Amino acid sequence: MRTALVPEVPTLVLDPTDQAPRLARGFLAERFAEWGIADDYVGRLVVCELVTNAYRHGEGAIVVRVFRDERDGLVVVEVWDGGEGQPMIPPENHAATSGRGLMLMAQLVQAWGVRPLNEGGKVTWVKLR
To answer: What is the spatial distance between Cα 98 and Cα 55, in angstroms, rounded to a whole number?
Structure first.
């Protein structure tokens, strides 16, 4: 019987502080540079939004994973946290001073979603174009 080797997924574990988004942007930029992807702007924007949401609304450590989908080669960004709340795009509110980040992010990516983790919490994922 042959065992397939699964490549290690680049992973960053962050404390839930106001420094987490900056550290996640740097982590993503390093992965893109390793892969020879020059334009990391949307990726940095997306990881910043997801990590900021995890910091503000989630619980516990924040885990960031960045990898390429084996099927199509597109970059996937995952942000895990221990909170049970689900990220969602709120109804349009012209008076609101925040709450538009996920809506803007959704327009820039191929797909995104949220799935619960067996051990509690959730992972919010994005597939970049």
So the answer is: 15
Long-range contacts made by residues 100-108, C-beta under 8 angstroms, separation at least 24?
101/49, 101/52, 101/53, 102/49, 102/53, 104/49, 105/45, 105/46, 105/49, 105/50, 108/42, 108/45, 108/46
Give the pair of three-digit tokens for residue 56: 């503000």
CA distance 126 to 114: 9
Please state, as a whole number, how many other Cβ atoms lie within 10 Å of the Cβ of residue 51.
29
Q: What is the pTM of this model?
A: 0.91
Residue 23 · residue 47 · CB < 8 Å: no
Show Cβ contacts of residue 68 under 8 Å, excluding neighbours closer than 6 positions: 35, 74, 75, 76
Task: Tell me 71's DSSP state.
Answer: T
Burial class (CB in 10 A: 0-12, 13-18, 19+), 43: buried
Tell me the Ramachandran region of residue 36: left when phi exceeds 0, alpha when psi lies from -120 to 50, beta otherwise: left
Q: What is the pLDDT of residues 47-71, one digit of tens each?
A: 999 999 999 999 999 999 999 999 9
